[in-house]
Amino acid sequence: MKGSFWTRVFRQAIAVCLAAIALWLLLAGAGAGAAENLEAVAANADFVTAALRTELGPEHPLSLWQQLAISQSPLLERNWFSQDLPTPSEEPLPNAQPAPDHDDEEELPQTTSAPGDIVERTLVPTTSQGYATGGGLYLYNRTDRPVDLAAALSQPLSFTLAPAQAGPQLLIIHTHTTEAYTPDGTDVYTPSDNNTRTLEEEYNMLRVGDEMERVFTEMGLSVIHDRGIYDYPKYNGSYTRSGPAVEHYLEQYPTIKLVLDVHRDALAGSDGTIYKAVTAVDGSKTAQIMLVVGTGESHPNWQENLALAAKLQKSLDTLYPTLARPIALRQSAYNQDLSPGFLLVEVGSHGNTLQEALAGARTFARCAGAVYLSLVEDG
């Protein structure tokens, strides 16, 4: 405790000294231009960010509200949240094979590589070409449906949340429960029927869902985490099997208005190259996430799901500008016709490690949780 106290005092002293030295240098030779120079220092993102980092310390993670405050300044946001990022890459990746887009389509063959052979990319748009844009958001449209992202962002949601004490508010489910990540360190599993899937719960999507559940619960949300397995022993028809489970929960708990189907993506080139979608959060490698909105003939009200996705994406882009890949709009419904609060989220890809995925899950849950809490009814 003493060490922590004196360390903070030392940091504060350094921060004050830095400010005093800068101010003295400016005033000593500035004369009539002192006010203008002082204003320039205050507007200098490098100086202000350095002072903040000195004050807080490099190991001090920002709280959600501190991040939100810094994000209101475009200059500080760029300086604070853009530390040590991998090389940005415009989607799609070179020779990348698209993931299956139909509910009952066979999974593409997936292989693993040594972590050192996997190519890292931070998947952020470098141009608006190929995307639907609006409200500062990007969407990769794999359908023939027109999209107005700005309208989706401003569209009021058709539901609210009852207080947590009234019953469960959020359901986490995994249609592809056994999906797993690249084995690394002590995170090594026994594969099931695919090199990148396993029945071991501590290494598949159930572990990622557990991490989200923990964060959501700590934030005050009431969560049910379904632990059913829907993609084993047969992958085909996974959504046909997970859909009735969701319906059962919605009938049993009418207070559930939010559903997250948590997956991971698969990014592989036709030449066999395996990619992983990664960024940096608080100095740690973190798997990027992607929100997926389904349409399909069975889902005429998919715009309601898109409205929720747009609000979550805006929160993600504000607090962690490179955490989320663009929203994906796809042709299949993915059971999202069961609730306007139903979204699919992909946490990283099979090239990521489990630890990177857990970091992505935690960060996503903090952002999404803030949006979900804003939907809770007063009283």
Polypeptide structure, described:
The protein has 379 residues and is an alpha/beta fold. The protein has two domains: 2-60, no CATH class; 88-373, 3-Layer(aba) Sandwich (Aminopeptidase). The protein has helices at 2-30, 34-42, 45-56, 64-71, 74-81, 149-154, 205-218, 238-252, 302-319, 354-373; strands at residues 88-89, 119-123, 132-134, 137-141, 170-173, 223-225, 258-265, 275-281, 284-287, 289-294, 327-330, 342-349. Strand 3 and strand 4 (137-141) form a beta hairpin. The two termini are 39 Å apart. The model is unreliable at 1-5 and 40-85 (pLDDT under 50).
Write the layout of secondary structure elements.
Layout: H1 2-30, H2 34-42, H3 45-56, H4 64-71, H5 74-81, E1 88-89, E2 119-123, E3 132-134, E4 137-141, H6 149-154, E5 170-173, H7 205-218, E6 223-225, H8 238-252, E7 258-265, E8 275-281, E9 284-287, E10 289-294, H9 302-319, E11 327-330, E12 342-349, H10 354-373
Parallel strand pairs: 1-2, 2-8, 4-11, 5-6, 5-7, 7-12, 10-11
Antiparallel strand pairs: 3-4, 8-9, 10-12
Helix pairs in contact: 1-2, 1-3, 3-5, 7-10, 9-10
Which labels suit this protein?
single chain, 379 residues, alpha/beta, Aminopeptidase, 8-stranded mixed beta sheet, 4-stranded mixed beta sheet, 12 strands, 16% strand, globular
Number of helices: 10
**CATH architecture type of the largest domain:** 3-Layer(aba) Sandwich
> How do the SSEs run, as a string of H and E?
HHHHHEEEEHEHEHEEEEHEEH
Shape estimate: globular
Number of strands: 12
